[in-house]
Design goal:
mainly alpha; 2 strands; 62% helix; globular
Length: 261
């Protein structure tokens, strides 16, 4: 769903400038060869969102107080911890894997089936991990930008990742069919409710909402794969005085003075 696109910026951080040739051209390219089809799908998703999902999210916000919405969000997040744990292991992020395991243990018991995020209170912060990120860590490129019906912004790597996460998720088999549908719908409404103002502001201030969503999605996914580290800056050539030796600087100055004369 469109609501599953979380509008976030790249986290603040530092990165050193790599040598020329280490820049990822794919990251700085638009890479949208299916734009015409994507825009049609994007428009359909927007219609579905405007007719169904956004109104449901507004009703949800109007009827359920913030405290209740927080409990629903915590419970849904807790159901996702096994997938976070599995992907953290596959990425060899052992600390994150341990954190996900402990979060699920504490929140499922002391936190009353996950309705209370007690783990966060003792310093065990939640991090989202999925198989799309895992493939990215393994060096698989994102491929062309795609807009999927109902699911929204994606790419071939993340689309495959969604399917693998569905298989990795133990609740896929533990829940009955109607319970899986309820979980999916609840997650969509929950995420849409969280980002009502963000998406409205983005749409109102964007010259091209489609392009804005495309770039935000790609930045967001790159940020998740890097675990919050900024990408390398664009390789912009520059000449500074430090690049000149004293002798070269004197020669350049003398040449300038001769030109003026």
């Amino acid at each position: 769903m469109l609501a599953l696109m979380v509008v976030v910026g790249i986290a603040a951080g530092c990165s050193s400038t790599p040598p020329p040739g280490e820049y990822d051209d794919e990251e700085y390219s638009v890479n949208d060869p299916f734009e015409d089809i994507n825009r049609v799908t994007f428009a359909i998703n927007q219609t579905v969102d405007g007719v169904l999902l956004k109104p449901l999210a507004k009703i949800y916000v109007g009827v359920v107080p913030q405290w209740g919405r927080d409990r629903v969000n915590d419970a849904l997040n807790n159901l996702g911890e096994p997938v976070n744990f599995a992907n953290a292991l596959l990425q060899w992020e052992l600390e994150r894997a341990a954190t996900s395991m402990l979060r699920f243990a504490f929140n499922s018991t002391i936190g009353l089936a996950g309705f209370f995020d007690v783990a966060a209170g003792i310093g065990l912060s939640r991090t989202d991990e999925d198989f799309g990120q895992t493939l990215g860590v393994w060096g698989v490129g994102e491929g062309p930008y795609l807009v999927l019906p109902l699911f929204g912004p994606s790419n071939p790597r993340d689309a495959v990742g969604m399917g693998v996460d569905w298989v990795l998720d133990p609740f896929t088999k533990a829940l009955r069919d109607h319970e899986r549908y309820q979980r999916f719908i609840a997650r969509g409404i929950d995420q849409r409710a969280l980002h009502i103002d963000d998406l409205e502001t983005l749409e109102e201030t964007s010259i091209d909402f489609y392009a804005a969503m495309r770039e935000l999605y790609r930045q967001h996914r790159s940020n998740e794969i890097r675990n919050g580290e900024l990408p390398p800056p664009l390789p912009i050539p520059s000449i500074t005085l430090e690049e000149f030796s004293d002798e070269e600087f004197d020669q350049a100055s003398a040449t300038g003075e001769e030109s003026e004369e």
